[in-house]
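Supplementary Note 3. Input sequence used for the single-chain structure prediction.
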Amino acid sequence: MKNEAAFRQECILLLLGTTILFFWDISLYEKTALFISLLLIILAEIINTAIEAVVDRISLDIHPLSGLAKDLGSAAVLISLGIAAIIWTSVLVSYFSH
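The predicted structure, written as discrete structure tokens, is reproduced below.
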């Protein structure tokens, strides 16, 4: 499966991020927002992998709709990474500006 490496990297990111949150002295609200942003990445990757598996199961033939489905699944992962980056950056800027 071509997404295994990406999924492993995202799980490592979740583990590292969760470890940081455990020791970081920020509000519970901020920790929750940061943790949810990491879970969003995992969720998007799971959905992307499911879409790719279904498309590949139906047919390995190249079809524009199959390509579109896979591209949109990948876009969802990219958007989730962007959302997480914005949330983490916002909290970091707030934390270090005090």
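The mean pLDDT is 94. The longest helix spans residues 64-96.
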